[in-house]
Every structure is written in structure tokens, then in C-alpha cells.
Amino acid sequence: MPRPVRVRFAPSPTGFLHVGSGHSALANWLVARQTGGEFLLRIEDTDAERNRPELVDNVLEMLQWLGLQWDGTPVHQSERGDLYADAAAKLVAGGAVYFCDCTAEDVQARNKAAGGKPGYDGFCRDRGLEPGPGRAARFRTPREGRTGWTDLVRGEVSFANADLEDFVVLRGNGSPVFLLANSFDDADMGITHVIRGEDHVNSTPKYLLLVDALGLTRPEAFAHMPLLVNEGRKKLSKRRDDVSMADYRDRGYLPEAMVNYLALLGWGPADGVEVRPVAEIVEQYRLEDVNASPAFFDQKKLSFVNAEKIRALSSEEFQARARPFLTLGEPAAAALASLATEVQERVRTLTEVEPMVEFLVVDEPEVDEASWTKAITKGKAVPEMLDATIARLDALGPDEWAPEPIQEAVAAAAIDAGLVNAEGGPQLSKAQGPVRVAISGRTVGPPLWESLTVLGRERTLARLRGTRGRLG
After folding, report:
1. If you count Cβ atoms within 10 Å of the first and of the last residue's Cβ in the chain, which end, N or C, has fewer?
2. Dihedral, CA atoms, 19, 244, 79, 93, nearest 10 degrees?
3. pLDDT grade for 40, boundaries at 50, 70 and 90
4. 3-state secondary structure of 148
């Protein structure tokens, strides 16, 4: 086993846990569990004006739902202000920072007048300002050389120091910015591997300059995970794309399916078997095998993985997982129990379960208009098929009401209606369409014969006659 590592997931309480942050959290958790190391949680809540405590609860809840349990007690940066103040004082004493009273408007105006590139222009670098209200502390970035690192995902990465602006370390109100708190905490917490999203690549040289200026130990390794993009190859956006982890939970996705799929974004197992137990992913996952190119978050593939995970459940576990999604309560649970195997083979998410069995519970099923149009309005010889089916099923006694006799009766009705010959043929499935819509309101659902058996003789005939009467 590789040497144990210490990693951290550091969300900010300014947003909910989304698939991008979940992807980074998973990578950290996998590496920690694979090496027998520690997966630490740090809440980066130094920005008091933007913090929303309820979002911390969302992050914790979603990590637990995914099964990404952290080690120890979560660290809150808001409780470590004295440590950051000491670190900032050390930077001031060492001349690593200087004070600046420029506003954003000042910087923009100078850049526009000079026709230069955006960003801070070093205006206050040699003004010798003393600390004071409204004056930010900026890091005195070296003008020579390069700052770089070996990235486990991206290889050798480096930046020319001359291209790095003198970045803010302390805001004008004296509070530390993300970079100072982040670099100090990683060293203070003994983080060995910094694993985070690609969007942090450009800030990593600043992070390293701060670590060096504070005399702290650099992490052993960095890994910047690939950017997640939508089908238009644009970065996933919380405003534009479906990215909320809680939404996927509420739509009936299994946590083990989400974990499995997130692991596949930018990585694939050596044996090519993508859908597998989480324990096997822990064994096989390697940061060095992660592709740095943007990864497409494909909801269709996620649904496929989820369907595979649902089918892998035992019947009892499937029913237990589906129960919270059954708004019709015990009647729906009982209906599901009667067709559990058939439903389990057909659904992709747990929210699809109840619509599959709802027709068995309600007095009258809600008719899907698209299904009615396809099977009834545009169907061939529909009145004749319904009449023949009613006659054939009515001839079955209560003791004969079982899948095989029902199937034989409906097949005979299709012959009676002139839709198929005695040998059957491809039109038999189409002939069954009006029967399915009449009893369930939809063209898709559990196997027809088993459904009619569960629905019962009297209710089946009543629904068939009701549909026939609607046709006139």
C-alpha cells in the first residue's frame, strides 16, 4: 500500500455542493482511503459578508449522502483569525508585503489610460504606505524567475513571476483573503497532497510564494482535476446547468451511482469495467491516470450507471430505497412489492418507480395524452381490438386469471380483430398498445400480463370498457 497521505476538502459556504466540488471531494477521499490516510474537512468561511450557514449544512449532508465521511472534526477558518493575523504580521515584518490604498476603479482607470493589460499595476509597490483603514496588504511578487510545481495530473507547470500581479493578502478591513488562509492552513494541518479543481491552477504559484515567504513546508504533491463541462463544452455553471448534488439525490439517483460516475470523469479503470463497487474504485484509482482535458458531465451516462446500480440491488433493498419516493404510501409500496422484479429492470431512477405502479393504486389512471394519441387515436382497428379483448378476458374465470391465460386471451383477441394472423407476427405488440393504455394510461410500464394479473379481473375489464365507451 502507498504511504498514507493527508488530504483536505475545503468548500466555501457561499454555494451548495455541486457536481464539480463533489468531483474534487471524491478524488481526495479516494486517495485518502486508498493509502490508509486522512480525509480532512475545512470550511473556508473567512468572507463573513457572503457566508450562508445553511450551505455548510448542505455540504455536510451531501458528503454524508455520498458516503464520503471525513476524519476528525471539521475546521472552520472563521475560528482561526488570530493565526492568520500572526501569519500576516510575519509577512509585514519580513517585507514580503506592502500596503496599498488603490481602489478597483483607480486600477482600471490607470490601465485604460496606459493601454496596458488588466490587473494591478504595482502603483503602491514603492510608496512606503503605512497600514491604515481601507489599505490592503499586497504581496511583493518577485520580478525575476519562475514559480512552478510537478502536478500529478498535468505534469510540470510553471509561471513566470513577472506575469503574476502583486496580489492582495489582507483586505482593507484587515481580514485575510483566501490565499493566505489556505496556504497557512495546509501547512498547519500537515496536508501532504493538495487535490482540487483546475480553476485553482492560476492561484497555485501565489500559494507557493506565500508558503515560502512564511517559511512553511510545501505540500508533497499537487493535483488539479479536470474542468467539468456541459454538452456544449462550456464550464458547468450553477446558473445554467443542472449541477446541484441535492437535486440529483431528490430525483432518485443512488449515492453509489453518483460516486461511481464522478470517479469516471477524467479517469477510467485499467480493465475497462466502468460500473463497479466503490471499494474496487478505491483500489484502482490513481491520480497519475487522470486526464487533464475537460471532462463532459453526461447526464445520460449518469442515468445508465444509476440504472445498473439499481438492477444490482436485491429486491428487498430496491423496495426499501424506493419507499421514500412513493407519495402514495403503503398502497404504492404493496403494488411495488407485487411487481418489484419487473419494475426494477425498467427504471433508471427511483422517481420513476411510482409512475410505473400508480395505475395499480388509483381508481382511475391519469392518461398520458401522447400515449393516447399514439396507441388509441392513431392505432389500427382499436375499437375492434378492445371489443375482442373484453370478450376474451370476460370469458376467463377468476381461477384462470394469471399471466399465461391472459396473454393467450389477448393474442387471440388480436386475431379476432384482424390485426394478426394465427401465427402472430410483428403487429401483435402494436395490438397490445390500446390494452396497455386503457389499463395504465401509458404506452410503457411493467410487463402487461403481470400487470393485468395484479390489477385484477374486474378492474381490468372496467378500464377496458371505460376506454371503449370513450371511443363511442
Report:
1. C
2. 50
3. very high
4. strand
In angstroms, the CA 166 to CA 206 distance is 9
pLDDT, one tens digit per residue, over 361-379 is 999 999 999 999 999 999 9
163-182, pLDDT tens digit by residue? 999 999 999 988 889 899 99
For residue 116, is pLDDT > 80? no
Question: Considering Cα of 46, then 49, then 50, then 51, what sign does the dihedral take?
Answer: positive
Question: How many CB atoms within 10 Å of residue 107?
Answer: 17
CATH code 1.10.10.350 region(s) in the chain: 367-471
Residues in Cβ contact with 367 at an 8 Å cutoff, skipping those fewer than 6 apart: 437, 441
Of the residues 112, 234, 238, 378, which is catalytic?
Answer: 238
The three three-digit cell numbers of residue 101, written as one number: 490604498
Hey, what CATH topology would domain 80-225 get? Answer: Rossmann fold (3.40.50)
Question: Quick one: cell of 254?
Answer: 443512488
For the chain, what is the mean pLDDT? 94
Average pLDDT over residues 20-47: 95
Report phi then psi at 223, rounded to 5.
-145, 115
Closest residue by Cα to residue 58 from 27, 86, 29, 18: 18
- Helices 457-471, 448-455: inter-axial angle, 10-degree rounding: 110
Helix orientation angle between 403-416 and 382-394, rounded to the nearest 10 degrees: 140
State the span(s) of the chain assigned CATH 3.40.50.620. Answer: 80-225
Helix (H) / strand (E) element for 147: namely strand 146-151
Query: Any catalytic annotation for residue 309?
Result: no
- Which helix (H) or strand (E) segment is 194 a member of? strand 193-197
List of long-range contacts for 127-130, beta carbons under 8 Å, 24+ apart: 127/98, 128/98, 129/98, 129/99, 129/100, 129/101, 130/99
d(CA 193, CA 182): 13
Q: Could you tell me the three cell numbers for 421? A: 394472423
